[in-house]
Each structure stands twice: as C-alpha cells, then as structure tokens.
Amino acid sequence: MPLYDCMLLFKSHLKREPIMDLVARVGKHVYRRNGVLIDIKSFGTVQLGYGIKKLDGRYYQGQMMQMTMMATPSINKELHYLNKEDRLLRWLLVKHRTTQYGIDFLNEEQTQLELSRWPRSRLYDDEFDHVDPEVYDDSDDEEYRVDEEGEKKLD
C-alpha cells in the first residue's frame, strides 16, 4: 500500500471539536478500507495567499491539518465526499514517492550483474595516464600576448 498525505484546510472560525470529528471520520474511512493512519499534524491557523470564496463569504485564513496514511490507491476517489463538506475550504491528497537512487535501486542480483559489466582495471584507470605530453599541452601561454602596459589581449 502506498503512503499518502491528506492536507485539510478548514475554515478559520471552527472550534477544535468539529475539526476532530471530520479527521476521525476520514481516519475511520481509511481504517475500514484496511488502511493505516500513521500521523496527524496540526499547523494551526495559516494566512492564505488569496481569499477562498465559499457560500458564506471569503476566507483569508484557515486551519491546516495533515494526515499521513497508508491506503489503497483507490482512496483518492473514495475521499471525494470531502468536496461536499462545508467545514473545509480545500483538501488535497498527495502520494509519497518511494524513489530509490543508485545501488539501492537495484536488488543484489542486479547489482552484481551491473557491476560485472565493467572490467575492474578499467574502473580505476586515469584517462590521462596514456597521454603523450608532446601532443597534449594544457598551457595557454601562446593564447594571450601582453602589451607594454600589462593588459592581456587575445590573438
């Protein structure tokens, strides 16, 4: 089951009890679908970047909460009943990415196969060990000439 964050933005004038009622309702819904509620965070009252218009007025503040849960992928469609909830200004469901990088991405068999493709001596060779110094000269002395006043000029 993937990990999700459900962000809930409540109207600012609500007391704690109606907020907890809705959070408990979402938690029970997740639990009934064999999900697990992992964490609940409250961010308190937040200032909004713009007013959110509802039937009873425009809101410039809201109370934000975050619920972290493990649930089935169908949870997004199942939570659409929140659209009709008059206590909420907005809600958002975000799926956590479980991206792994590097060797963690490969399992042990794939790691051995992947690393065996590169010869061991080739991994540690320095590409400039074989370069003839006559052919490869990294000095740029000839690139600039200096005039009498000490200023560099391109050739």
From TrEMBL:
GO biological process annotation, one example: translation
CDD domains documented for this protein: bS6_mito (cd15465)
GO cellular component terms, A-Z: cytoplasm; ribosome
Annotated segments matching region Disordered: 129-155
Gene Ontology molecular-function annotations: small ribosomal subunit rRNA binding; structural constituent of ribosome
Pfam families reported for this sequence: Ribosomal_S6
Acidic residues bias spans: 134-149
InterPro entries referenced in this protein's UniProt entry, alphabetically: Ribosomal_bS6, Ribosomal_bS6_sf, Transl_elong_EF1B/ribsomal_bS6
Family: Belongs to the bacterial ribosomal protein bS6 family.
Protein known as: Ribosomal protein S6
Annotated source species: Acacia crassicarpa
